[in-house]
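CORE FACILITY INTAKE
Project code: CF-77B
Contact: R.S. (postdoc)
Sample description: multi-component assembly, two entities in total
Requested service: structural model of the whole complex
Turnaround: standard
Below are the sequence entries exactly as provided by the requester. Do not edit them.
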Amino acid sequence: MTKVPREVDPAVDDLVRRAQASDLAAFNTLVIRHQDAVYSLALRMLGTREAAEDAAQEAFIRAYRRLETYRGGSFRSWLFSIVANLARDELRRRARRPQVSLDAARDDPDRADLDPPDTEPLPEARVEQGELRATLEAALGQLPDDWREIVVLSDVHGLAYDEIAHVTGLPLGTVKSRLSRARGRLRDALRASRELPGAAGRQEDRR
Amino acid sequence: MTRQYDEDERGRTPQQLRDERLSAFLDDELTADQRAAVEAELAADASMRAELEELRGVQQMLASLGEVRAPRPFTLAAAPARASMARRLGFARLEWAMRVGTGIAGIAFLVAVALPAGGASMLAGGGASEDAAGETMSTMAAPEAAGGGAELFRGADPDAPTSDDPAPGGPTVVAPSAGDDSGGGSDGSAGAAQAPPNTGAAEGADTGDASPGDAGLDRDPGLARDNGSLALPESGPPAAQVASDGPGGVELSLLVLTLLLAVLSSLPVLQRRRLGQGGHT
């Protein structure tokens, strides 16, 4: 897979400059452009739609307030660092007073939009693909929070290591090793589901 | 964020190191040398090639998850207020502490100015009993800056009835840091000796505690300055005299106390901040 090319978008820079000068319309254009990415990251990190919406909305409010601290580079990464911080805070709060585990979150009907249901009847190959995907989603949800954050930033959003290091505040070496271990664990889960036919199917039935 | 995995990462197994190389190879995050080394390994090892393909499959599946569409627009209807520099730096709570400190300073200043001017006379009646009540409070809370704050008001109250006394104790309140705590102590007892009759009632109230001012100063000479300013009002009489004779001196001492109070009250705030910061900012 090829990484998404670094975002160096003069149009974005121009919008940022205007937003920094209190042009709300320009800022909202930036919001529209980035809201899917920001919301997706929050959803992958937090697991529930409600929490992800809160984090994403708060992230854009914070982004506006702190716009002058944006110093060039990828604006999307800058937004990611804000929303990831908020999501981490939320995860810490949950850890302090345990309530919604990610397993429980998986049974949350809201979470269905992580895995949008296909309405057409699926050919055999796609059924298998759907099972694998369900297995992957389940395994992703069971990763330690900070591994999941890194693997999502890398493989779902296509960030490079140095960008991930910037977003997470972790050293490059830690990013590298956690990413590898997260992928390794996902690989193991997919392997297991292939070796135990039906395991993925059971996952699918649960939805 | 938790860093609990860092230790595991130091003791990585060869398999993990291999996974890591392959993972970074996949991401094109290796130096040219490292890359060449992995390519050589791959050329020689079919199982490693299979592992690489497996990892590539995981990566592609993750990529296929893709972005989820936002359920609603997150555009802003109105521009939120831009954060002030202080807030961005995380001084919101310190700001709060400073505001409280400033408020106390204002009150203290009003008390210091208004009391000698005559408003004090209305406090004259209750002066002695208030003093006694304050005494117990001060013995409980003497080492605390907050206790000092309480005394600050109490010390200012009973000065009203004795507004024509000379000023033997004045300097000890304003500048008890002069260095010789014994001097401060003797001054304090001297002040006690000259106690006017109505404050004598207050002294009688705390029976058994011969001369609190002296005790306070002798107990902890190392804190002579703090004790001086905080403990002198403890022996009601000298404080009363001091406060009565020179409003300027009282104002100064009140301001010093208030500043001290503001600084001390902000310390726990800062400490809490330090403890609370678990991860990135």
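Facility notes:
- Chain A touches chain B through 67 residues (CB under 8 Å).
- Residues 39 and 202 of chain A are 29 Å apart (CA to CA).
Invoice: internal transfer
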